[in-house]
Task: inverse folding
């Protein structure tokens, strides 16, 4: 695995000889009202140190009490990620000194995590008709540390500490090194985030630090029939999924180049921690670990171990609604969406799916509902960076609009004009149609209109008579100009009938 | 008037009947403290609010309002237990200026029962010690002989009760810290079952072993106080939800048929002969009261001290990590960086005994040593528990000496910490297994120092402990002996 290589061998490596090995550690802040071991609020953005108490500031004599909701949300997540749920789980202290760690230890889980082995299936990034499985090593519950704000002026100013975040519940999800590209790592993160938001266990807001991820990456390189592994690098500070993809891509290239120069393998160099620098789009060395830090884990004597019964686990399982993968299947199978459209819609979250289901059922045409939501609604949401909850048109209004399209009262082009009016002037469907002067056209009017077109366009009529029925298309646009309310279908059929073509 | 010989029960009864005012009781205590404590050093500080609270209580009684079960009782609190608005130092320079926001649950319950917190008692720093020689606030003396230690770590709480400064006090017991000083000072001290009394507000030494309990002049007093401070506390996950029996109701039940086991390992090498004789005499008293005495064996007893001195320092090394100079604690200023702040603050803030135990614990938890020390000690702990389970299949109580020797002289063990650690030999097992245990006076040595008898019971069976101790005290007067002052 770690044989020495010559410069010549290393230079002859092609892309096909290199496999990228990526594992991820994701910290998810669970969406509980209060912290993991005290009653303080977890609300983001409060003034520093206003959401603290004796427990989360580590006052002498204070004791932690587990937040049952955090435990439930962890189990829910574990079940959704196909994890083995521990029937016996306990709390351990991870001891280290840092000013934003008031007790001098973090309460975490060491050898009995709440969630054991699990997995997550992803679309294969190279062939979306296939899936790839990422095995999850474990997921454990722990308390967050506080925030240190250091003086950046280099003038030796004091550091400040905000303990509002201290003690908020985090679920740390650790994957096996199963991802084979940065794009796949990003796809994993996307799917994980989607699942977590569908479960409503976390809002996954990365700006607020509610979802954080670190990556471990190295390369397996085939050299003359042998496999060589490069030193493992842990990348921190990847504060968006896009940053994660770029950092991992960058690191894969950097490791290959470095190996080509020095040939160092996993057994020659210690594990490094590097930070992603968004400004320079590079990773920089943070620290080199000779051996892993000694956290002196031991069971926290202030907390009692948790024993979970089948009933408790089943009760949590019963709270889990359909997950993204199931929704994709349902949208494709039951509602006739194309896989791509189903994926796009699921990717928008539960709110969009519910909106779609309401409209599809209401107007009786899933395909039309899917098209309208996929195009009109999502385009609006993207352009205005809005969520479906703040979209100005309710699913009831959309249903009414599309019902008129299905019923032939409106054609799609006019319906889009109606929608624009509804959004711009906050109108109901009928009011928007009135505003546009859209009203039903009776048969006499249609016949008169068609007669006028026949009279004014003898050449076209000749073509039709000559057997070219398609030529009627040229008259549709003209009909529209004369009377925008005339249904194109009706005009076409009437002309053909009158001409006898 | 001098109320210094009143028991807690007498205080409460006399206050309730109007024989005495709370103000007079508190004034008497404060006077005794003023007179005697400069030489004893059992208090770190008294409470300025004791007198106003007593006055308010007198008004309350005069108005005919309902009174709490401890109304009128002045009580001293070990300084490792938080008192809101009153400095709580755990005997350490590190917490010299620490003023808790909240009362410990125990203190809250005492206050709600109308007891009056009179002051905070001296202790070995962070409860680490068996002599109260290791306090930042000076050495406490044994009121029977000022050359001798009062025991520890709740030495101040034992000393003040023995000297008549206050009728009762609250201590905490991690390896014998209530029972050993109770024995050295000739008072009655109960370590309740682990989980019986909330630890919220007790500055932790070793969380899985620490337990708060009463120290007083009789088993009856301990029963009275224990019934107030016991019970589940939602703020302490390890506090038990078990029902609290009426400890006072069973005190007078006869002992006929009570099965008492004498653990042979408690009478082996190292036991002082005077203690041996006193304990044997006590056994005869209990026999005469109808108890059935049998010899039992608890084979893992010899390993208890070793296991204790691994587990307790391990937990302590982590519990005391929070004292880092960032908040609540002493901080060394003028340092060049964070590491120096930590090092200097902890070097200055902690005394030597505490540093020694932090280092022991840190070492024992380190990777590569964890299995050999912490894990092994935890296994021994389980075996000791097993010994108790087996013993309690055939007996209701286990009886023996509280300590191998009476109080030792101040400074006697300063060169030999191991000898000091062996003072805990009979007491640590109850902490390791969680069972309740009481120490009651059962003799006086030739040098005029008290001797203590220890009784241990099944978990949550404090009632039998208190009943037996009370029956013994009805037959004997050792608990009424006071030092000559
Ligand atoms: Zn808090």
Result:
């Amino acid at each position: 695995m770690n044989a020495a290589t010559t410069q010549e061998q290393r230079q002859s490596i092609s892309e096909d000889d290199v496999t990228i090995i990526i594992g991820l550690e994701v910290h998810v802040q669970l969406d509980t009202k209060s912290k993991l071991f005290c009653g303080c609020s977890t609300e983001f953005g409060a003034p520093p140190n206003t959401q603290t108490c004796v427990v989360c500031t580590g006052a002498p004599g204070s004791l932690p009490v587990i937040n049952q909701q955090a435990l439930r949300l962890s189990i829910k997540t574990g079940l959704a990620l196909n994890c083995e749920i521990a029937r016996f789980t306990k709390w351990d202290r991870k001891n280290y000194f840092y000013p934003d760690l008031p007790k001098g230890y973090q309460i975490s889980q060491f050898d009995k995590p709440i969630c054991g082995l699990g997995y997550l299936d992803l679309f294969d990034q190279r062939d979306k008709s296939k899936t790839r499985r990422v095995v999850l090593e474990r997921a454990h519950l722990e308390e967050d540390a506080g925030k240190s704000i250091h003086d950046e002026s280099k003038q030796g100013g004091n550091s400040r500490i905000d303990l509002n975040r201290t003690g908020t519940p985090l679920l740390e999800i650790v994957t096996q090194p199963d991802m084979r590209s940065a794009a796949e790592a990003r796809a994993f993160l996307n799917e994980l985030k989607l699942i977590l938001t569908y479960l409503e266990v976390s809002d996954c807001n990365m700006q607020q630090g509610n979802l954080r991820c670190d990556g471990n990456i190295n390369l397996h390189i085939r050299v003359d029939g042998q496999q060589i592994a490069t030193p493992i690098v842990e990348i921190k500070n990847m504060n968006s999924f896009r940053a994660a993809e770029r950092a991992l891509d960058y690191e894969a290239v950097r490791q290959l180049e470095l190996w080509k120069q020095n040939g160092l393998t996993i057994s020659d160099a210690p594990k490094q921690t590097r930070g992603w620098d968004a400004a320079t789009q590079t990773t920089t060395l943070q620290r080199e670990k000779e051996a892993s830090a000694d956290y002196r884990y031991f069971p926290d004597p202030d907390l009692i171990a948790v024993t979970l019964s089948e009933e408790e686990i089943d009760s949590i399982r019963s709270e889990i609604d359909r997950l993204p993968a199931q929704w994709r299947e349902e949208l494709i199978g039951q509602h006739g969406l194309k896989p791509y459209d189903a994926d796009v819609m699921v990717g928008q979250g539960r709110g969009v799916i519910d909106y779609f289901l309401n409209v599809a059922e209401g107007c009786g045409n899933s395909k039309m509902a899917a098209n309208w939501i996929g195009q009109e609604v999502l385009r609006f949401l993207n352009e205005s960076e809005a969520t479906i909850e703040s979209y100005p048109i309710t699913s009831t209004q959309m249903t009414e609009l599309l019902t008129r399209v299905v019923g032939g009262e409106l054609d799609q082009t006019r319906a889009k004009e109606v929608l624009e009016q509804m959004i711009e002037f906050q109108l109901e469907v009928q009011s928007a149609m009135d505003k546009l002067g859209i009203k039903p056209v009776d048969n006499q009017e249609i016949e008169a209109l068609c007669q006028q077109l026949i009279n004014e366009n003898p050449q076209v009529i000749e073509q039709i008579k000559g057997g070219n029925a398609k030529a009627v298309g040229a008259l549709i646009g003209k009909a529209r100009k004369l009377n925008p309310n005339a249904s194109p279908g009706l005009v076409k059929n009437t002309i053909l009938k009158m001409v006898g073509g | 008037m001098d109320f210094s010989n009143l028991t807690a029960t007498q205080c409460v009864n006399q206050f309730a009947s109007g024989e005495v005012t709370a103000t007079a009781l508190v004034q008497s205590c404060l006077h005794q403290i003023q007179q005697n404590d400069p030489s004893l050093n059992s208090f770190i500080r008294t409470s300025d609010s004791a007198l106003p609270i007593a006055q308010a209580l007198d008004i309350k009684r005069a108005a005919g309002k309902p009174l709490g079960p401890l109304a009128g009782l002045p009580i001293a609190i070990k300084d490792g237990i938080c008192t809101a608005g009153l400095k709580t130092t755990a005997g350490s320079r590190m917490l010299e200026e620490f003023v808790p926001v909240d009362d410990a649950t125990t203190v809250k319950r005492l206050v709600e029962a109308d007891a009056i917190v009179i002051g905070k008692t001296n202790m070995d720093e962070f409860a680490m010690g068996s002599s109260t020689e290791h306090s930042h606030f000076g050495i406490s003396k044994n009121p029977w002989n000022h050359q001798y230690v009062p025991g520890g770590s709740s030495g101040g709480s034992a000393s003040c009760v023995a000297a008549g400064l206050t009728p009762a006090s609250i201590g905490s017991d991690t390896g014998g810290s209530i029972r050993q000083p109770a024995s050295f000072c000739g008072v009655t001290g109960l370590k309740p079952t682990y989980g019986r009394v909330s630890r919220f507000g007790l500055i932790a030494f070793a969380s899985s072993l620490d337990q708060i309990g009463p120290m007083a002049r009789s088993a009856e007093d301990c029963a009275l106080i224990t019934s107030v401070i016991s019970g589940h506390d939602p703020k302490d996950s390890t506090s038990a939800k078990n029902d609290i029996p009426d400890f006072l109701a069973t005190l007078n039940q006869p002992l006929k048929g009570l099965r008492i086991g004498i653990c042979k390992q408690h009478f082996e090498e190292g036991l002082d002969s005077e203690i041996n004789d006193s304990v044997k005499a006590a056994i005869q008293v209990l026999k005469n009261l109808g108890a059935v005495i049998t010899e039992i064996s608890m084979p893992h007893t010899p390993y208890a001290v070793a296991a204790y001195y691994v587990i307790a320092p391990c937990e302590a090394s982590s519990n005391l990590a929070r004292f880092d100079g960032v908040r609540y604690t002493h901080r060394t200023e003028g340092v060049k960086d964070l590491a120096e702040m930590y090092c200097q603050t902890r070097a200055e803030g902690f005394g030597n005994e505490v540093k020694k135990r932090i280092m022991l614990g840190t070492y024992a938890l380190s990777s590569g040593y964890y299995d050999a020390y912490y894990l092994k000690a935890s296994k021994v702990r389980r075996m000791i528990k097993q010994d108790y389970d087996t013993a309690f299949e055939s007996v209701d109580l286990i009886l023996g000496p509280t300590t191998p020797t009476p109080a030792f002289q101040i400074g006697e063990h300063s060169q030999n910490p191991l000898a000091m650690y062996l003072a805990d030999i009979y007491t640590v097992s109850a902490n390791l297994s969680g069972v309740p245990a009481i120490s009651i006076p059962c003799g006086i040595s030739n040098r005029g120092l008290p001797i203590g008898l220890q009784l241990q019971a099944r978990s949550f069976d404090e009632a039998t402990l208190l009943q037996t101790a009370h029956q013994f005290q009805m037959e004997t007067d050792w608990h009424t002996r006071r030092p000559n002052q």
User: Anything to note?
Assistant: Chain A has three domains: 7-307, 324-436, 444-499. The two ends of chain A are 79 Å apart (CA to CA). Residues A 35, 38, 40, 52-53, 55-56, 167 surround zinc ion (CB under 6 Å).
